[in-house]
């Protein structure tokens, strides 16, 4: 679990991404940074990217905690529960929609 | 009970769905309501330029963020269950259920990922007005997301706007608008969202009351209580009105659920409303454990008739009228419905056999008969009844439905009083002295969650044994898998959700203790 937290911490700090960003809230709020964010000549996608990046980078402690919980939760849900415990019954057992229809029709018409 | 599926499998599948839905609903209502409260607070900040409002807005935004983050995606598990545990049901409802859920997914993703990001990351990066717009759109978006889920649920309670295709064994959408604007769906959305507004208002008042009790953040607490009490009071009036409307819709479309809500066994003209009642431990009918006599009750004469049909002397059918039938008032006996349901199933079976035998002519003629207006109206309408042998299986758990409804309504009226007193003491300048009231406000937070859960118990337990009203009983919708595997996932979910809930409460309590930033 400690290793997992360290990985998340590195990701949240974007140390692996080598992107130059203001490191403190004060810098974020500085005028020079605002000019960069509001630079209308800059590509819109790049501005959106920077917006999210700086948001994640400067997230509060509780924000980081809940993001860790979200990621763990999504991992458990999609990588464990969905794959090992929740296969789609009809998609797994039948190849075509016709076969699925026939199966359900069989069930619906045999109440006993 | 018909042995279409093992009873233990049906019960475990139901328990699993109930568990996940109830846990999911712990997170949803606060999001629905607190986003509007935050939007009001931020509007005041933008209008007045008072930094105190910004601080207040940011504090409640933090609590909203925690609740949202922990609750996000818990609803997806319900979709896993549709595919694994309720595959017959999922296939049978076809695109009618899929379309609203898909719209909800797209709505939720785009609205939430865009506007919530601006709410949390956008301070000082976008203009004040853009930020405010994002906050309002988050509130509206969250409530619009709920609309699509409740449209799907509303259709299960009253199937409209579709036709059953025997070729595919699926219901196909005929009118999207009939489904969207079904009275049940509209009532459900308005009632569920306004219940979220009330719950969030109580949450804000309760947390603020705690601050006052601790003699901290008095300004923040009083300003928050003012906003929440006004919003809560207006919302609770609206909640009562939407609830009242829902009651009439239920009385017309799901009379058995209505009878269960009121513990009404024998219908009458000018029926009285049981305001308070206690069931005895013995059954009124030895064949049915769901029917218990009242050991005491306080009844308001004629009020139930008025509530159901806006007529003080209208006839309200009881459980026995719906089971045994009542010719005078036009209620068909349940046995007759069962017979008609069996005819519909037999006809569908004939069609299936004709198809299997590749007898196209016979299959086409049977399909034409199955889809004819006459057959649909007189037989297919009762399709689900064909799965039953015993009429007693058509009766939901009356005591549970009755108690849940009365608990919800009783607490609802207590909350109206709480909002009114909050405003009264605030205006009189006596709020900080009324420590008993502040303690009551804190205790009201779990009570609001209890009322909210009770509302869903009324909606879902009251409509049993149906998963799709009159068309598909719960036992027919369930996938034929082993009950053991459902038990395993039940306990897995119980553990996962409990951990999530503890995590939310821990982070939430810590942030409340820390309080707003100065």
TrEMBL record, chain A:
<keyword id="KW-1133">Transmembrane helix</keyword>
<keyword id="KW-0812">Transmembrane</keyword>
<dbReference type="Pfam" id="PF14899">
    <property type="entry name" value="DUF4492"/>
</dbReference>
<keyword id="KW-0472">Membrane</keyword>
<protein>
    <recommendedName>
        <fullName>DUF4492 domain-containing protein</fullName>
    </recommendedName>
</protein>
<dbReference type="InterPro" id="IPR027853">
    <property type="entry name" value="DUF4492"/>
</dbReference>
<feature type="transmembrane region" description="Helical">
    <location>
        <begin position="66"/>
        <end position="86"/>
    </location>
</feature>
TrEMBL record, chain B:
<feature type="transmembrane region" description="Helical">
    <location>
        <begin position="402"/>
        <end position="427"/>
    </location>
</feature>
<dbReference type="InterPro" id="IPR002585">
    <property type="entry name" value="Cyt-d_ubiquinol_oxidase_su_1"/>
</dbReference>
<protein>
    <submittedName>
        <fullName>Cytochrome bd-I ubiquinol oxidase subunit 1 apoprotein</fullName>
    </submittedName>
</protein>
<dbReference type="Pfam" id="PF01654">
    <property type="entry name" value="Cyt_bd_oxida_I"/>
</dbReference>
<feature type="transmembrane region" description="Helical">
    <location>
        <begin position="225"/>
        <end position="241"/>
    </location>
</feature>
<dbReference type="GO" id="GO:0016682">
    <property type="term" value="F:oxidoreductase activity, acting on diphenols and related substances as donors, oxygen as acceptor"/>
</dbReference>
<keyword id="KW-0408">Iron</keyword>
<dbReference type="GO" id="GO:0070069">
    <property type="term" value="C:cytochrome complex"/>
</dbReference>
<feature type="transmembrane region" description="Helical">
    <location>
        <begin position="22"/>
        <end position="46"/>
    </location>
</feature>
<keyword id="KW-0812">Transmembrane</keyword>
<feature type="transmembrane region" description="Helical">
    <location>
        <begin position="436"/>
        <end position="459"/>
    </location>
</feature>
<dbReference type="GO" id="GO:0020037">
    <property type="term" value="F:heme binding"/>
</dbReference>
<keyword id="KW-0472">Membrane</keyword>
<keyword id="KW-0997">Cell inner membrane</keyword>
<dbReference type="GO" id="GO:0005886">
    <property type="term" value="C:plasma membrane"/>
</dbReference>
<keyword id="KW-0813">Transport</keyword>
<feature type="transmembrane region" description="Helical">
    <location>
        <begin position="479"/>
        <end position="503"/>
    </location>
</feature>
<feature type="transmembrane region" description="Helical">
    <location>
        <begin position="98"/>
        <end position="121"/>
    </location>
</feature>
<dbReference type="GO" id="GO:0009055">
    <property type="term" value="F:electron transfer activity"/>
</dbReference>
<keyword id="KW-1003">Cell membrane</keyword>
<feature type="transmembrane region" description="Helical">
    <location>
        <begin position="58"/>
        <end position="78"/>
    </location>
</feature>
<dbReference type="GO" id="GO:0046872">
    <property type="term" value="F:metal ion binding"/>
</dbReference>
């Amino acid at each position: 679990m400690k290793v997992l937290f360290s990985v998340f911490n590195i990701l949240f700090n974007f140390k692996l991404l080598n992107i130059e960003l203001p490191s403190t809230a004060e810098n974020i709020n500085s005028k020079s940074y605002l000019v960069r964010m509001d630079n209308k000549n800059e590509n819109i996608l790049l501005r959106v990217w920077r917006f999210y990046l700086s948001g994640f980078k400067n997230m509060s402690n509780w924000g980081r905690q809940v993001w860790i919980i979200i990621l763990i939760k999504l991992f458990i849900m999609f990588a464990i529960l969905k794959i090992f415990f929740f296969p789609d019954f009809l998609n797994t057992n039948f190849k075509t929609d016709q076969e699925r229809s026939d199966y359900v029709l069989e069930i619906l018409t045999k109440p006993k | 009970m018909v042995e279409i599926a093992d009873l233990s499998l049906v019960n475990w599948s139901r328990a699993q769905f109930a568990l996940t839905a109830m846990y999911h609903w712990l997170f949803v209502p606060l999001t629905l309501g607190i986003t509007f409260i935050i939007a009001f607070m931020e509007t005041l900040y933008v209008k007045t330029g008072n930094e105190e409002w910004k601080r207040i807005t940011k504090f409640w935004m933090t609590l909203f963020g925690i609740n949202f983050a922990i609750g996000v995606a818990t609803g997806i598990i319900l979709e896993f269950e549709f595919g694994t545990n309720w595959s017959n049901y999922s296939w049978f409802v076809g695109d009618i259920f899929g379309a609203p859920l898909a719209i909800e997914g797209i709505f939720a993703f785009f609205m939430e990922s865009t506007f919530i990001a601006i709410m949390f990351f956008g301070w000082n990066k976008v203009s004040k007005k853009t930020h405010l717009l994002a906050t309002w759109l988050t509130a509206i978006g969250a409530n619009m997301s709920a609309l699509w889920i409740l449209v799907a649920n509303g259709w299960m309670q009253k199937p409209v706007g579709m036709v059953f295709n025997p070729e595919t064994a699926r219901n196909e959408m005929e009118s999207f608008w009939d489904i969207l604007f079904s009275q049940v769906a509209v009532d459900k959305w308005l009632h569920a969202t306004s219940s979220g507004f009330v719950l969030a208002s109580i949450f804000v008042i309760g947390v603020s009351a705690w601050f006052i009790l601790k003699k901290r953040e008095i300004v923040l607490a009083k300003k928050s209580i003012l906003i929440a009490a006004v919003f809560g009071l207006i919302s609770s009036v609206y909640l009562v009105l939407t609830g009242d409307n829902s009651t009439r819709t239920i009385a017309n479309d799901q009379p058995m659920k209505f009878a269960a809500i009121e513990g009404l066994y024998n219908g009458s003209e000018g029926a009285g409303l049981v305001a308070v009642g206690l069931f005895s431990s013995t059954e009124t009918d030895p064949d049915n454990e769901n029917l218990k006599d009242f050991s005491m009750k306080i009844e308001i004469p004629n009020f139930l008739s008025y509530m159901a049909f806006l007529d003080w002397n209208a006839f309200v059918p009881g459980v026995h009228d719906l089971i045994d039938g009542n010719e005078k008032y036009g209620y068909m006996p349940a046995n007759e419905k069962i017979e008609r349901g069996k005819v519909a199933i037999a006809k569908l079976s004939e069609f299936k056999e004709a198809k299997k035998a590749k007898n196209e002519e016979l299959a086409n003629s049977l399909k034409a008969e199955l889809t004819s207006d006459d057959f649909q109206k007189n037989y297919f309408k009762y399709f689900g009844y064909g799965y039953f042998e015993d009429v007693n299986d058509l009766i939901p758990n009356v005591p549970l439905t009755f108690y849940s409804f009365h608990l919800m309504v009783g607490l609802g009226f207590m909350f109206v009083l709480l909002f009114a007193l909050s405003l009264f003491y605030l205006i009189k300048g006596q709020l900080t002295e009324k420590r008993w009231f502040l303690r009551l406000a804190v205790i009201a937070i779990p009570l609001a969650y209890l009322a909210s859960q009770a509302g869903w118990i009324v909606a879902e337990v009251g409509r049993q044994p149906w998963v799709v009203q009159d068309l598909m009983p719960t036992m027919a919708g369930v996938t034929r898998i082993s009950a053991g595997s459902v038990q395993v996932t039940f306990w897995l979910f119980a553990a996962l959700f409990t951990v999530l809930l503890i995590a939310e409460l821990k982070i939430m309590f810590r942030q409340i203790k820390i309080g707003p930033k100065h």
